[in-house]
Amino acid sequence: MIRLPNVLFATFSLLAWGQTPKPIAQPLRLRVMVDPGHGGDDGGAKGPRGLKEKVAALEIAKAVGLKLQAAGFEAVFTRDDDTFIPLWDRAQAANAQGADLFISLHLNAARAKAARGSEVFFLSLGKGDDEDVVAVENAGAGVAPGSPDSVVASILDDLAQKAFLQDSERLAVAIQGQLNRLAGIKERGVKQAPFIVLRGAAMPAVLVEVAFISNPKEEEKLKDAAFRAKVAEALTLGVRRYFAETNGTVRRRMVGGPG
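Above: the chain's sequence. Below: its structure in token form.
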């Protein structure tokens, strides 16, 4: 995991599971885990003119990291190069880093080239709203590693995120509105889906389908650094609005690893 350079942040205590946040005398530098989807041998979706989802997601993630840093947050990444990170490991990395939010970045695809717009998902413990998108994004995940009983592992992962579903929905709504307003992307709404990458995250977590890479016009936009900067600005403002609505407080589950 990579942190943006020259970032100083205030130390703080991890809050116990379910505990009400205590007042903090010094400013808290909030940490956001940015997860560029796919990577390595997993290229994700591919645009009609050859743009790969893994490439576009990483470029957007880098832009998001810069905007978050400029806004006073700390950004950490699940990957900063063309490396594949197993889906089960991404939320666990966020837990180990003591992240306050988890944002997974992806590009949508559809057979109909006219399909366009953005969608923001938070975890569903059931079937969810879009089975086709779920099938694509969960492809190749397999069962939870290191567990003799994948059913039990799935239940534990769901419980880890269940406590944050309401906050995850708030974050999704905040981000979706800004993507429409700032980046000029058609709003397709906030949805729920059982994405593996969100399971087990001990913090509010969302998956953002930024645009349709299968749409030639949106593919061209995704190649444009100015457009990616607008997307990053929208995501950052969504994060800021989320924390403004929650009075800048965080509730963390006690997890292992550095905080």
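The CA atoms of residues 178 and 237 lie 7 Å apart.
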